[in-house]
Amino acid sequence: MTKLPLYILGLVCLIFTTKIQAQSKIDTLLPVRGFCIAAPQPKQLDTFIRFINEELATRQINMLILRVDFNYQFESHPELRDSIALSKKEVKRLVQACQKNKIKIIPQINLLGHQSWASTTYNLLKVYPEFDETPAVKMPEKYVWPNADGLYCKSYCPLHPDLHKIVFALVDEICNVFESEAFHAGMDEVFYLGDDKCPRCGGRDKAELFAGEVNQIRNFLAQKNRKLWIWGDRLIDGKTTGIGMWEGSYNNTYRAIDLIAKDVTICDWHYERPDQTAVYFAMKGLNVITCPWRKPKFAVTQTQDMLKFRQSATPEMKQHYLGMMQTIWSGAGSFLDEFYGVKVNKEAGENTQANCFKALTEEIKKISN
């Protein structure tokens, strides 16, 4: 057998050592480098797995949040499946791709809010209309905002006695099939909560209702040593901060920040300004991840802010600044078409999801180097 010259062996060792040092550096500076997107439909699976292997892995993404909702062939409640949904075998292909690339995968099902969109009622309330927090509000044929009902998205009633048996069966099944250590419950933009006409929730404190649902989901997950992730907007006072009713709360749910368990991870999204509310969550003892969407310059600023927070914070607060996560709010197919140049929206200019993701990961690359 031919022996490699010593200088070549030395070069190989140097390259290997440098790579390990770079990985250790980025893991220390930004422990979480996430990517959040809707789970692909079966026909998009091959392209999405290619994206995991060739893009997420090479760009040092180590966390993938998949918004699954009802895009899975649930066995516990098959009546809630989408008409076209991922099979268990297809999910395992996603899991294997992530495991190969050392990417942790977290599935999401929207809980509490986002039980409808525009004129469409989603599966849970469609199949179980008795769970609707506001059954008197009828879905319009043509949706417009603002509207007389204040309808953005429907919510389920968190106090309905039959709700959690069904919801938690879905959560447990999806966590099992994705082999996940955590679950993302969504819980953003909840406008309908504690409705006056609800026989169970009417007159109750909205912050207590919101916190109660967060803690109930958290406690269910804790039985199998899983952690809860949620979006952070309902925990921010939208009026006092001026952040507004979308990225903050106008219905007083923000006080729930002092009522929820401290091991809930907050995904803190700000898309129109790089607001530094990560500090607020860390000061409350909550783990926080900053989330950009489609503005590349903001993604760079937010990444630099996160680094500053981690570098300048006390040891007690530093541990709560976990890192960054790119969010994608189109379907997986639309994003992949945009990313690979199949369909390009020239009117969007530089402010696209694909460009934001590239800017974020380029900034991460600079840090690791």
UniProtKB/TrEMBL annotation:
UniProt keywords, alphabetically:
Hydrolase
One Gene Ontology term from the biological process aspect of the record:
carbohydrate metabolic process
Which intervals hold domain Glycoside hydrolase family 20 catalytic? 85-329
GO cellular component terms? membrane
Q: Which Gene3D superfamilies does this one have? A: Glycosidases (3.20.20.80)
The record's GO molecular-function terms, alphabetically, read:
beta-N-acetylhexosaminidase activity
Matches recorded under Pfam families: Glyco_hydro_20
Active site: which residues?
189 (proton donor)
EC number(s) from the headed UniProt entry: 3.2.1.52
Catalytic class of the enzyme = hydrolase
Q: Which domain of life is it from?
A: Bacteria
Reaction catalyzed? Hydrolysis of terminal non-reducing N-acetyl-D-hexosamine residues in N-acetyl-beta-D-hexosaminides
Write out the similarity annotation. Answer: Belongs to the glycosyl hydrolase 20 family.
Q: What is this protein called?
A: beta-N-acetylhexosaminidase
Q: Which organism is it from?
A: Pseudarcicella hirudinis
